[in-house]
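Example S7 (structure tokens).
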């Protein structure tokens, strides 16, 4: 610590001409909680309660909610009073946010104040009914606040998910390209929850490497936190993007986690829950039924449109390599009844799908769901929330043959340095014939305000260089090849 203190003082003096430093209390398993404040030019300041912003990655907020599942009324009032006092001390007007680091014991410590509207302002609006943008305009015009602190109260619960153009399956690296499809959930009251989607793009827009990767702020409100979480999960199901990587499956995974549902949050949540990165989740039993029912229903629709109805009642539905025996029949209302080998009957109704649609919607045993689907040569790629799989509908003897197919060999890329994302080559500081040691920098790629340094994972001699400084590259383009 003594060495670090001296180093920090020297760095501060060099950067700012001032070597004064301060110490922060170390908080174990901290939470990020902020208070929304609103003031006018007449000295009136109120707070609009708190937002929990602990679900972060690289100190960037990903999921926010209001109120916080941590706080009780006494702590909420104390944090609100501190935030109001700070705003009044500097004669602050308009909307602003006072941010705190909080301990799991409800202790809290000032972090900073953001003197602007926050990205996550919609969750506060949803639980208070106050339009913060309107109030900022009224304050700037010189109007007094039309309400006092006692007029404000918390109504229900709201969650916001930031939908980013980044690929969670590739370490959350930025993803760029054309937004080929963008289907948004229906906004307003959905029966049990309310959806709001603040989006800055439209279908067909180009997501470039030069700006922040945020596509939309998807919000769900419910009377309880449980309602809001389930509403968000359903809203994410109804969101479809194509043409670039996006984090919707990851957001859905968080909504389905028991820990998140319990409200046991911290700023290390993502690191703790996904220590090896995100690779999707294994389907639950209910999701397996959704995958089976969706694939079999689409198979039947296609066969009927082709004029070749199968008239078969027994099928093998393979989820990746795992076979599931399914008996198919229809009731008097033409609803599908699926009899699972060893698993009872399930009923599929209100099917909304036709070939070409990217979303399959139906009710499974009376519960509505939406799955993202894509028809491929020998089946369907289906994703429900964070679970995705290749699903095939096969005759029993064909399924036996599929089980014998060998796995496709993975290409050997050990001698290649590939671009991890679309971006711009900042530098490739190696040349053909150069000897490179493990850990040496071989390329620097920039995308969405971030530079990514690629290092050699083995000793070797450069055989070829596939790009030069300033070149645009796509994901998996070869940058450097070793001999």
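Recovered sequence:
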């Amino acid at each position: 610590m003594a060495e670090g203190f001296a180093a920090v003082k020297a760095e501060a003096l060099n950067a700012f001409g001032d070597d004064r430093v301060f110490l922060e209390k170390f908080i174990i398993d901290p939470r990020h909680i902020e208070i929304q404040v609103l003031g006018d030019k007449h000295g009136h300041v109120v707070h609009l309660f708190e937002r929990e912003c602990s679900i972060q990655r690289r100190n960037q907020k990903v999921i926010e909610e209001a109120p916080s599942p941590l706080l009780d009324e006494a702590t909420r009032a104390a944090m609100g009073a501190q935030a109001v006092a700070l705003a009044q001390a500097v004669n602050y007007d308009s909307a602003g946010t006072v941010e705190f680091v909080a301990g799991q014991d409800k202790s809290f410590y000032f972090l900073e104040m953001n003197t602007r509207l926050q990205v996550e302002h919609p969750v506060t609006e949803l639980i208070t009914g106050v339009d913060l943008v309107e109030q900022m305009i009224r304050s700037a015009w010189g109007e007094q606040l039309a309400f006092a602190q006692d007029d404000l109260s918390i109504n229900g619960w709201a969650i916001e998910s930031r939908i980013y153009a980044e690929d969670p399956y590739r370490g959350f690296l930025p993803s760029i390209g054309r937004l080929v499809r963008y289907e948004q959930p229906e906004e307003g009251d959905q029966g049990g929850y309310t959806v709001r989607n603040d989006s800055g793009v439209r279908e067909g827009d180009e997501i470039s490497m030069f700006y922040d990767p945020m596509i939309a702020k998807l919000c769900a409100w419910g009377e309880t936190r449980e309602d809001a979480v389930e509403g968000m999960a359903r809203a994410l199901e109804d969101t479809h993007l194509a043409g670039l990587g996006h984090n919707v499956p990851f957001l859905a995974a968080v909504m389905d986690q028991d820990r998140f549902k319990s409200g046991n949050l911290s700023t290390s949540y993502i690191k703790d829950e996904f220590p090896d990165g995100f690779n999707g989740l294994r389907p639950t039993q209910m999701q397996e039924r959704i995958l089976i029912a969706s694939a079999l229903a689409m198979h039947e629709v296609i066969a009927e449109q082709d004029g070749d109805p199968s008239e078969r009642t027994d099928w093998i539905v393979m989820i990746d390599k795992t076979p599931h025996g399914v008996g198919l029949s229809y009731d008097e209302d033409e609803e599908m009844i699926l009899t699972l080998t060893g698993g009872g009957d399930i009923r599929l109704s209100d099917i909304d799908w036709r070939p070409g649609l990217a979303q399959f919607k139906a009710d499974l045993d009376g519960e509505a769901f939406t799955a993202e689907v894509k028809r491929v040569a020998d089946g369907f790629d289906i994703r429900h929330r964070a679970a995705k799989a290749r699903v095939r509908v096969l005759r029993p003897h064909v399924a036996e043959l599929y089980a014998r197919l060998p796995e496709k060999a993975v290409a050997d890329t050990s001698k290649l340095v590939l671009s991890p994302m679309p971006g711009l080559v900042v530098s490739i500081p190696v040349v053909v014939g150069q000897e490179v040691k493990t850990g040496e920098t071989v390329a620097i790629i920039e995308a969405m305000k971030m530079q990514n340094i690629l290092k050699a994972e083995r000793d070797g001699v450069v055989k070829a260089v596939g790009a030069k400084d300033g070149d645009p590259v796509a994901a998996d383009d070869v940058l450097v090849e070793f001999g």
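Notes on this example. The radius of gyration is 27 Å.
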